[in-house]
Amino acid sequence: MRKIEDGREYAARFVNPSIEMGGLDYKKRYTRYLSIVSSLKGQDLIVQLKDCFINSDSVSYPHHLVVISELAADGSLTDYIENYKGLIPEEQIMNIFTQTLLAIDLLHRNRIFHRNICTNSVLLFNKGRKAKLFGFIDSRIV
Fold this sequence. Notes:
It is built from 4 helices and 7 strands; from the N terminus they run E-H-H-E-E-H-H-E-E-E-E. The chain is α+β, with helices and mostly antiparallel strands. The protein has one domain: Orthogonal Bundle (Transferase(Phosphotransferase), domain 1), CATH 1.10.510.10. A hairpin with an 8-residue loop joins strand 2 (49-55) and strand 3 (64-70). The longest helix has 20 residues, at 90-109.
């Protein structure tokens, strides 16, 4: 997806409330999600939200939350591991791991628990040199 105003590319994700949100009241879950993501705005270790809305017009995606965020051109950590030829250098592993732990520390200092950290929720930028945390649908503020 490309945003015309600034020429940058963004990612769009359709979140199915009945599958990804356990079938609970989707408006309540969306509100909580937006509250968490908004509180993390401007944090360099977190994938930044650009826009978000409920898709109420589509037959294919009714009531899906549409999340527009910065595009991780290098994909997820899962993609990186699956596509890397040979052994990943220890320095690179330590860099990704350190940035992921710093992101988790940031969340916990803000009393946010991600609850679904996996290789798919770590997105990579700048040829794998920058790691950012993503996927706050199941997160909680305590």
